[in-house]
Amino acid sequence: WPVQKTEYGKLLPLLLMKFFASFNFAVLHAMKDTLIVTSKGSGAEVIPVLKGGFVLIFAFLAMIIYTKLSNILSRTKLFYTTIAPFLLFFVLYAFVLYPNRESLAPHASADWLVSVLGKNREHFVAVYRYWTDALFFLMAELWGGIVIALLFWGFANRINSLQEASRFYTLFSAGGHVGVICASPLIWFFATKYAGSNYGYTIQWLMSLVIFGTIAIITSFTFLNNRIEKVNETAKDPKPQESFKKSLAVVLRSPYLGCIALMVIGYGLSVNIIEVTWKAVLKLNYPLPSDYQAFMGIVSGVTGVVSFLLALFVGGNLIRNFGWYKSALATPLILGLATALFLTTYFLFPSLLIVTGTLNLIVLTGAIHNILCKSMKYCLFDPTKEMAYIPLDPETQTKGKAAVDVVAARFGKSGSSWLQAGLLELLATSSILSITPYLAPFVLLALAAWLLGIRYLRTPTLQDSASVSTP
Which secondary structure element, helix H or strand E, spans residue 23, and what is its range? Predict the structure, then answer.
């Protein structure tokens, strides 16, 4: 067991934070896809529009605001100021925006836009028509980049050494997987409980759980911060007061951070291209919101179980026994195999896409790809990526994480969205399924760039400190 008795006071609150952060992520992920994909006049084609423009713009704005606030607020106040808007929005959406969703939707002007732009561009108009759902999609997408990547992992990186990280980080991932496992049956239960009646009750129950989880994260942080972090910080952290442009320029010129960005962009680009195609097939198989969300809940639960087992028995042992480099390589290699499996099934059995009731094989291979992608991300990708930040100085670490984990991560997803949206326009089609053959080569390029980034980051500091013995 890689934990000493004296370390439980630090480990357990961090595990609780990761549990609820991943629990919320699983619920939000299932809800945002269900709302967007199954809405009238919408579909999987709307996802590239949202990720390629709407989410990317706000992610960049969030990075700017976070970086500026990091210059004027203490780390404690920065945490509270960053997470508070999520909590407020979740309450607002559950009890105000969603119950009034149809009355707030500008159907008349949206219908007019469809008549002007054409039916094949209806997926653009869907973002405007259901703007409340687009806002929810935005906040759900930012949760992973801001709350998990910046707030949780940033806090963990500050209070753990590289040696501790090599022992603790896969345990944090395991705690997150338990959160995903717990979220899955709840998603399925509430989706099926109100199937065919008022789907709004499903939204309100699930959002209530997310609100509770957010409060639990804040409480755990407060407890641990009072016990550990305040010893090392004053009311206002001593930090160089450089201008925003100057500090951002330092981050952007760092080859080291650039290679971490290659890892993040490579993951986002390769995963998102396949995922959107899979979700388009999934909608054909499960057109009703309750059925779609119930299936996503099952996938989320299986992902949690697989991720938990990998993190507990594989991830930590792999890092400690084989070092950072080989552990970092495992994710792109396994994702490449999962991508090959899905695309082979998709291209060898194209008739399955047009025969009602025979989509199960493609849905299954897509689910396997989705489960492996997320399992490897939580088991090895996140721990190895976060370990790469620890050798950096505090200033570069704070601003670098904001630039990489918020903006670069969005570029990974947005890059695939731009490709998808561009091909939809070029081929004058509104179906994601028709452009999939043209997207496959870009997955290979993304995986290659990812591997190059890992190769550059192979430094003695990372490799040696990852391969420490268990206490």
Answer: helix 8-37
